Amino acid sequence: MTKENVNIYDIAKEAGVSIATVSRAMNNPEKLRKETKEKIEKAMKKLSYTPNALAQSLVSKSTRTLGVIIANINNPFYGEMVRAIEDRASDKGYTILLGNTDNKFEEEEKYIDIFLKKQVDGIIFAGGRRISEKYNRHLIKVAENIPVVLTNHILQNKNIYCVLSDEAKGTELLMNYLIEKGHREIAYINGYADSYASIIKKENYLKILSKNSIPIVDELIIDSPSDDMRGGYRACEILLERGKFTALFAANDLMAIGAIRCLTARGYNVPSDIAVAGYDDIDLCNYVSPSLTSVTQNISELGSIAVDIMTDVLECKEAGRLIFIEPKLVVRQSA
Amino acid sequence: MTKENVNIYDIAKEAGVSIATVSRAMNNPEKLRKETKEKIEKAMKKLSYTPNALAQSLVSKSTRTLGVIIANINNPFYGEMVRAIEDRASDKGYTILLGNTDNKFEEEEKYIDIFLKKQVDGIIFAGGRRISEKYNRHLIKVAENIPVVLTNHILQNKNIYCVLSDEAKGTELLMNYLIEKGHREIAYINGYADSYASIIKKENYLKILSKNSIPIVDELIIDSPSDDMRGGYRACEILLERGKFTALFAANDLMAIGAIRCLTARGYNVPSDIAVAGYDDIDLCNYVSPSLTSVTQNISELGSIAVDIMTDVLECKEAGRLIFIEPKLVVRQSA
DNA sequence: ATTTCTAATGTAAGCCCTTTCATAAATAAT
DNA sequence: ATTATTTATGAAAGGGCTTACATTAGAAAT
C-alpha cells in the first residue's frame, strides 16, 4: 500500500544468494552455514523484510488460522469463550478469524463461505447452536473440507469433534440444591427452545421435579424471548403474572441477572423472597448484587480444549470425538 | 485436508474454457457471453468450487481482512467495540483478525508482526492505549506499511487516523452534574495512569473542582490497580479507609460497578449515602443494581466510524484524521 | 462476399513463496 | 593428491489465481 514491499528476491539479491537459500534461512536454518545465515539475517534486517504469509500458505497448504463462529461476542459468555480460544490458539501459533452470527442462518452461511475461501485450517463453532437439520447441514458441509469443533453442542459425524459441559448433571446439581433448601415452587426460564443446551436443561429440570414428587406447573415454565438480560427480565415479568414461586432457575446467567433486576424492581428481595440461580458461571456472577448462584461450565476450559482438539486433529494426533467437562455448583448470595 | 481441492483449472476443463474465462466469470461477468457464463456456473456448482482467497489476494494485493488489536475481548467495553467493528466491517466485505494483548507490549508486537505477515489491509487499535514512545513506535511502524486507525487515543502521524469521544467534555458534563446535585467531596478512581483517556479525565476532574472552588483532596484520588471490577472494588476499599466522600467518579463503568459492590457490601446505600458514576456507558450499566449513571462514549458508533475511516482510506477516499464524538450524560439510579 | 470493427476468449507472465532435484563446495577417507 | 562422501547452495517447477496482450469469432458496414 504505502511502501513497496520487499520480497524474498530482494533479500536474496542483497545477501548475494539464491531465494531458495533465503527460504531455508527461515524454515531450516540448521541447513545453512553460519555465515550465509548471518548474511541473510543482516539483509532481512536492513530491508526490514516481512515474509508474505499468503504465498507461504499457498504452497504449504496451511494458514495457521482458525475460524471462530459465535452468536455474539458482546455477550460475556461468548466473550470468555473466545478469549480462551484466542489465548490457546495464540500459544500454539494460530490466529483467529472471527464471525458473529446472532444465531442467524444466513450469517452463519456467509462466514462459513468466507472462512473456507480464506483457507482457514479449521472452524470452531463456539457456543450453543440450534438443533435442526438445516443448521447441521452447515457443520457437515464444513467438515467435508476441514475439521470442525463444537462447544456445547453434539453432532456425531466424520471430522466433527465436540466438547461440552455435562449440562444434565449440572442441572441436577442445581435443582437438588434448590430442593434441599426447601423450594418446591421453582420457576424455569428456558433459553432458545431448540438449542441443545436448553433441551437438556429443561428435560432435567422436569426429571428432578418428578423424582422429588414435586408437581410440574406449566405456568412456571417459560421460553425466554431472548437469551440475554432483556429476555430474562421480560420472562420474569410474565412468570410473576402467571403464578407464585419461591425460586427461579434461568438457563443462563444473563437471563438470571435480568430476572433479578425485574424482581428487585418490583420490591422482591433476592434471595429471601425469591431465590434465583443461573447457569454458566460467567465472571459477572461475582459482580452483580446479590451475587449469582450458578453452575460453572468452565467456559475457559471449554475454549482451550476446543483448540487443543483442533490442533491435535490438524497435526494428525488422536483426538476425542466427544469430551464432557464436569460441571460444578457455585453457591453465592442469590440462592 | 480431507478433500482434494478443486481449483480454477478443474472448472476450466469441466466447462471447456480457459482459466482466464473462469476468472472473468467471477470478477467481470459482464464481459462474458451469457451461455459461457452459464456453462462455468454449472461447472462450479457441479464440482462445488471455492475460489482460493490466498491466491486471489496474492495477486490483487488486498486481503479484505482487517486486524483488530484490543486489550481484552472479555471486557464489555471492548466486546461492544469489537462487535461494532465486526458488524460494519462485515457489511463492507471485510473480515476481522483478532488479537488480545492485555495491554502487554510484547503481545502487541507479536500481533502486529502476525497481521503484517498475513497481509491485512489495515489495523484498528481499538480502545485506550498507553501513552509512551515505546507504544507509539508500534503504531508508527505499522503505519509505514498499512493504514492505522485508533479509537480513544490520539497520535498525529502519517497514515494514522483517530476517532474518539471528547472525554474532556464528558468529564465536565458528569462533574457538573454531581456538583449541581450538591456534592463537594467527590472521590476519583483513575484508570491506567498513562492512558490518554485517564490523563484527560483526571485533568478535567481537577479543572472542574477548581472552577467550582472545591478544594482538591489528594486522598480522594486513586489510581486503580486494574481497570476492571476487581480494581474498582479494591480502589474503593482504599478510598474508604482514606477519607470521607459523598460521591465517587470512576474513569470507567467496570471500576464503578466494582466500587458499588464494595460500597453495598459495607452497608452503604448507593446513591443515598454515596453516589457513584462511571464512564463509557456499557450495556451493563442498565443491568446492575442500582443502574449506573455514566457518560456515553457511543462505543458502537466509535467502532463503526473506525471501520468507515479505514475503508475510506483503503479506497483512497478522503478521511478525517481526527474525529471527535460528542459524549452525553446518562443519568440512572446510582447518582 | 469481403473488409472493418467490436466483443469474447485464450496465452502467458507474474504475484511470493517452498521444495525437489541437480550441482558445486567442503570434508573425510584412501 | 585423489576419490568418495557429506553438506551447502542453486535452478526450476508449482501452488491458484488475475490481467495485459494477442487472437479469434461474430456483427456491422461496404
> Of all protein chain pairs, which has the greatest interface, and how many residues does each chain bring to it?
A-B, 59 and 59 residues
What is the name of the CATH architecture of the largest domain in chain A? 3-Layer(aba) Sandwich
Q: Could you give the order of strands across the largest sheet of chain A?
A: 2-1-3-4-5-11
How many helices of chain A in DSSP terms?
A: 12
Give the total of domains of chain A.
3
**Through-space gap between termini of chain A:** 58 Å
Total number of beta strands of chain A: 12
Rg over CA atoms of chain A? 25 Å
Structural class by helix and strand composition of chain A: alpha/beta
CATH class of the largest domain in chain A: Alpha Beta
SSE pattern of chain A, N- to C-terminal: HHHHEHEHEHEEHEHEHEHEEHEE
Identify low-pLDDT runs of chain A. none
* Fold-level CATH name of the largest domain in chain A: Rossmann fold
Average of the residue pLDDT scores of chain A: 93
Task: State the CATH superfamily name of the largest domain in chain A.
Answer: Response regulator
InterPro entries (chains A, B): HTH_LacI, LacI/GalR-like_sensor, Lambda_DNA-bd_dom_sf, Peripla_BP_I
Keywords (chains A, B): DNA-binding, Repressor, Transcription, Transcription regulation
Domain HTH lacI-type (chains A, B): 6-60
Pfam families (chains A, B): LacI (PF00356), Peripla_BP_3 (PF13377)
